[in-house]
């Protein structure tokens, strides 16, 4: 027991489980890790999530100006996230250094989200110019964008234990998470296929006899 306590004594206790969340504004750090910059990036994540939620055919049909509002918001957010990514690559190194950017899992996630944001903006430009029909099958490229909410939520992941211990727990539970995810996807696909086969497209609704049909 004494040896176990001594082994844990030298390891830092994490407050936030993220790539830059354990830093504070009073430390001698780069501007990209300052508190106000991190809060701005979280706000950008919320703006991006709201924008992709509004990006639907019915929404743009009822409120046409929203197409340009969401485009402007996505452009600003994408440029900010891209600037942050480039700054971190310059500070930490791309693939070499003490803490290289591409070897950090959270940074890999952030870079992936930036790529999807650029793809979404490019697609929206083509849709506005009429090169690509609106909401074609290419719109599936926007599907991963809601995952950017993870960037906002990860700040609330707080653990009072060493990071090495947390990594061990995640590695041990990865197989169980995989099995549960596979189980969930199987039943979602099964119920989805059964629902389509049984009910098809729901165009008819039950109404009262006194209902006025428009």
From TrEMBL:
Its main location: membrane. The chain crosses the membrane at residues 68-87, 108-129, 177-199. It is a multi-pass membrane protein. One of its GO terms (molecular function) is monoatomic cation channel activity. InterPro entries: Ion_trans_dom, NALCN, Volt_channel_dom_sf. One of its GO terms (biological process) is positive regulation of synaptic transmission, GABAergic. Signal peptide: none annotated. It is found in: Membrane. GO terms for cellular component: plasma membrane. Pfam families: Ion_trans (PF00520). Residues 38-202 form the Ion transport domain. The keyword Cell membrane does not apply. It comes from the Eukaryota. Keywords: Membrane, Transmembrane, Transmembrane helix. PANTHER family: SODIUM LEAK CHANNEL NALCN (PTHR46141:SF1), SODIUM LEAK CHANNEL NON-SELECTIVE PROTEIN (PTHR46141). This is Ion transport domain-containing protein. It comes from Lutzomyia longipalpis.
């Amino acid at each position: 027991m004494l040896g176990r306590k001594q082994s844990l004594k030298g390891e830092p206790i994490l407050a936030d489980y993220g790539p830059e969340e354990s830093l504070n504004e009073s430390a001698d750090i780069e501007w990209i890790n300052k508190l106000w910059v991190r809060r701005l990036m979280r706000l950008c994540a919320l703006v991006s999530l709201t924008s992709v939620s509004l990006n639907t055919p019915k929404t743009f049909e009822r409120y046409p100006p929203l197409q340009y509002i969401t485009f402007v918001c996505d452009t600003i957010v994408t440029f900010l996230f891209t600037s942050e990514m480039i700054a971190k690559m310059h500070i930490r190194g791309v693939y070499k250094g003490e803490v290289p950017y591409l070897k950090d899992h959270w940074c890999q996630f952030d870079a992936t989200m930036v790529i999807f944001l650029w793809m979404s903006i490019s697609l929206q430009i083509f849709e506005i110019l009429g090169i690509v029909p609106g909401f074609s099958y290419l719109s599936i490229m926007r599907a991963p964008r809601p995952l950017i909410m993870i960037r906002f939520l990860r700040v609330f992941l707080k653990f009072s234990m060493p990071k090495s211990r947390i990594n061990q727990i995640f590695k041990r539970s990865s197989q169980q998470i995989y099995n549960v995810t596979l189980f969930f996807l199987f039943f979602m696909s099964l119920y989805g296929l059964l629902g389509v086969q049984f009910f098809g497209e729901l165009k008819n609704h039950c109404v009262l006899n006194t209902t006025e049909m428009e």
